[in-house]
Design a protein that fits this description.
With 318 residues, the chain is α+β, with helices and mostly antiparallel strands. Helices cover 35% and strands 25% of the residues. It has one domain: FAD/NAD(P)-binding domain.
């Protein structure tokens, strides 16, 4: 069987290496080389195990291991989040890929938010993003600023380089969130931008990004909503690629959708939680809060004992 992948990002590159073990696989990407757009942070243990499957030592690409994650001035102890050199990792993966475009039995849409091949998502929810690489002399923690209409972030990449950005319901909101983050966490006094770019992020769970399969086209990663409501898409992209590979290898592609929905129930829960916050449904938020805290405390950060009090204060202000 011949397989053609479109998109050589995190999901497409990983999937190509897996599929090449059993199938004749080609990949096409519109870029001539990997870019630096977004996705500098991930969950260490999960990434390490997934990349080990294709013979990659993820430790070689780690840039920082922040001690804390600070969200709206609430300090959480980091347990699993790292920043990594995404561009260098992709560059090394690309050296193993067979680039080209051939007629294929299976076509894979790994084009991220563009979802270039699958039918468009009904009532899609794409947030415009603005992103910068900048120099700052600030303690290397992760800084996040969340509002109902979007969020902004600052990730340390080592050697005083930071990935600073925001995503919101529209571009004016995105700019305002970025401005608020800079003021709140004192990111105004850097020594200049290294580079900048704009993009989009899809904030819909997999259940709202169907179909996953259309004729001989199969989606993976962000194209089918495998991004958490808090913007973390690296691990979901890798895991969705792994599930697709297993489904094809076992000749059980008809089970792919079911497997994806089962694997990413936690993403569905997080999107439901954020949706309730955005709609101002405070009691529903409080009902879902323990579940979301349990999910994130196992993956990313340990909450402080007084987190519930902070969240109650935040919700009562809305």
């Amino acid at each position: 069987m011949r397989i053609q992948i479109y998109g050589a990002g995190i999901a497409g590159s990983f999937l190509h290496i897996l599929l090449s073990r059993d199938f004749k696989t080609y990949v096409k990407d519109v870029r001539k080389e990997p870019d630096c757009i977004c996705a500098w942070g991930t969950i260490y243990q999960e990434a390490r195990e997934l990349y080990r499957e294709i013979g990659v030592n993820f430790d070689e690409y780690i840039l920082t291991r922040p001690r804390h994650i600070i969200i709206n001035n609430i300090m959480l102890r980091n347990v699993g989040f790292v920043t990594f050199d995404r561009r260098r990792l992709l560059h090394d993966l690309w050296s193993q890929l067979r680039f080209g475009e051939k007629e294929a039995d299976i076509v894979i849409d790994a084009t991220g938010y563009e979802r270039a091949l699958l039918p468009k998502v009904a009532e899609d929810n794409l947030y415009p993003t603005i992103q910068f690489l900048e120099k700052h002399n600030i303690e290397e923690d992760v800084f996040i600023y969340i509002r109902r209409v979007g969020y902004a972030w600052a990730f340390p990449l080592g050697n005083h380089i930071w990935h600073v950005g925001a995503g919101g319901k529209n571009i004016s909101i995105t700019k305002r969130l970025l401005k608020d983050l800079r003021r709140k966490y004192e990111f105004d006094n850097g020594t200049g931008s290294v580079c900048s770019c704009r993009g989009w992020v899809r904030l819909l769970p997999p259940s709202r990004c169907k179909p996953f399969i259309h004729e001989n086209i199969v989606g993976v990663g962000e194209a089918i909503g495998c991004v958490s409501s808090f913007g973390e898409g690296n691990i979901p992209a890798l895991r969705s690629a792994q599930i697709l590979y297993e489904s094809l290898r076992e000749d059980r592609l008809e089970k792919y959708e079911e497997r994806i929905l089962r694997e990413f129930k936690w993403i569905e829960m997080e999107h439901k939680f954020v949706n309730r916050i955005q709609r101002g449904r405070k009691m529903a938020v409080l009902h879902l809060l323990p579940i979301v805290l349990y999910i994130e405390s196992r993956r990313v950060a340990k909450p402080p004992r007084d987190l519930f009090r902070h969240l109650m204060r935040y919700l009562m202000k809305r």
